């Protein structure tokens, strides 16, 4: 019985040993020891032209709300909404009957005052003559002279009233204050308008148009320099990108830089001027302005795909030759050279299409990995030749 039990135990032990040996033969090689295929690019310095982008808003150089300075009913509208109007063009008319009546009454008052003055003048002349011959009392002459002066003052007052009445009559017709585009009328014929309160319409200049951008106060010296250059440069320093992503085909220049910095935001308003012959730019339109950099120094530019972001910081992998020791540590000849990926922290600058400027972290002549970075970690073994990538040393 005991022998049978030992025999069975030996059989089971042998089976377990056989199975374990079979499993060991199926173990795959460790992936960490396999080189990751990558492609490299040589780091170099070059002169890079790039643009800083600022959100902007299209605004007219001049805009005014049209209001009436006299009260009355709207009797006429003499334009098409949204059209271009000329300075002095008739836009609205207000019921002018009471203003015309006031003019007529003022003219009559002027005529009465003129007659009174003429009579007073004749009386004064008569009493002056009689006084010269001592034929009238001095007191009567003084009264005549006072009456004459009062008649003159009344005539002056009547003429002023007439001028005011004519002015009010003139205000009953509203004209365009300057060339520009007029908007949608806020009143219709028959509506009553109140003095200084009712907005009839809005008119704004349409060519040229302005674009306002908010610039950080640290860039004020740069934009003061650009303001000087924008009137001399053959090509534009400022490019306007419209809401649909298309590039506006007119050049811009700095119209003015605001007088002060907003202390809450730390920004200052810069206004740019653009020609608008086709009326493509409209007041209130959102857009963006690309401001060309004038930095002509050489800078390091690398492909954007070579950069890896980790917790808000940016890194690239640099290819380095290292020695791999053999199992026989005494045999120096058995050691061989291999490429490894070494991680380096970088500081990004401006993006230029599919490349980016590196402000710090890299030097010229280094080989950076541009393909296969997703499979890497610091110290990964690498080999040249990632599928679909650029060959080693290729630039942009």
State the gist of this model.
With 396 residues, the protein is of the alpha+beta class. The chain contains four helices and 23 strands. The longest helix is centred in the N-terminal third of the chain and has 36 residues, at 97-132.
How does this structure look, described?
Helix content is 26%, strand content 35%. It is of the alpha+beta class and 396 residues long. Strand 20 and strand 21 (355-360) form a beta hairpin. It is rod-shaped and about 140 Å long. The relative contact order is 0.19.
Percent of residues in helices: 25-40%
User: In CATH terms, what is the fold-level topology of the largest domain?
Assistant: conserved putative lor/sdh protein from methanococcus maripaludis s2 fold
Largest sheet: 9 strands, mixed
The pLDDT mean sits at 82
The succession of helices and strands, N to C, reads: HEEEEEEEHHEEEEEHEEEEEEEEEEE
* Beta-strand share of residues: 25-35%
Assembly of the depicted chains: single chain
The CATH class name of the largest domain reads Mainly Beta
Structural domains: how many: 4
- The CATH architecture category of the largest domain equals Beta Barrel
Distance between the termini: 83 Å
């Amino acid at each position: 019985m005991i022998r049978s039990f030992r025999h069975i135990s030996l059989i089971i032990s042998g089976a377990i040993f056989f199975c374990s040996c079979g499993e060991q033969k199926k173990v795959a090689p460790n992936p960490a020891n396999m080189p990751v295929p990558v492609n490299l690019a040589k780091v170099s310095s070059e002169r890079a032209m790039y643009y800083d982008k600022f959100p902007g808003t299209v605004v007219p150089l001049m805009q005014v709300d049209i209001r009436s300075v006299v009260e009355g009913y709207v009797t006429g509208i003499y334009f098409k909404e949204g059209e271009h109007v000329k300075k002095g063009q008739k836009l609205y008319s207000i019921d002018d009957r009471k203003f015309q009546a006031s003019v007529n009454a003022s003219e009559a008052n002027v005529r009465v005052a003129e007659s009174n003055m003429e009579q007073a003048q004749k009386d004064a002349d008569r009493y002056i003559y009689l006084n010269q011959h001592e034929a009238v009392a001095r007191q009567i002459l003084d009264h005549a002279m006072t009456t004459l002066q009062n008649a003159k003052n009344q005539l002056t007052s009547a003429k002023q009233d007439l001028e005011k009445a004519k002015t009010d009559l003139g205000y009953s017709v509203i004209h365009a204050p300057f060339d520009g585009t007029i908007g949608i009328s806020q009143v219709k014929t028959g509506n009553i308008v109140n003095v200084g309160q009712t907005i009839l319409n809005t008119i704004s200049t349409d060519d040229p148009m302005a674009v306002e951008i908010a610039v950080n106060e640290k860039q004020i010296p740069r934009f003061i320099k650009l303001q000087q250059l924008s009137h001399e440069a053959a090509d534009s320093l400022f490019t306007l990108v419209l809401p649909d992503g298309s590039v506006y085909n007119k050049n811009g220049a700095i119209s003015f830089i605001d007088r002060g910095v907003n202390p809450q935001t730390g920004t200052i308003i810069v206004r740019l001027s653009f020609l608008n012959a086709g009326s493509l730019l409209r007041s209130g339109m959102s857009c963006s302005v690309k401001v060309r950099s004038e930095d002509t120094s050489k800078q390091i530019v690398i492909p954007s795909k070579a950069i890896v972001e980790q917790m808000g910081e940016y890194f690239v992998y640099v290819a380095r030759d290292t020695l791999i020791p053999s199992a026989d540590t005494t045999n120096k000849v058995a050691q061989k050279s291999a490429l490894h990926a070494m991680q380096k922290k970088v500081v990004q600058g401006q993006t230029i299409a599919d490349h980016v400027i590196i402000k710090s972290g890299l030097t010229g002549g280094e080989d950076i990995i541009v393909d296969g970075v997703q499979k890497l970690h610091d110290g990964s073994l690498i080999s040249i030749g990632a599928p679909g990538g650029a060959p080693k040393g290729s630039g942009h």
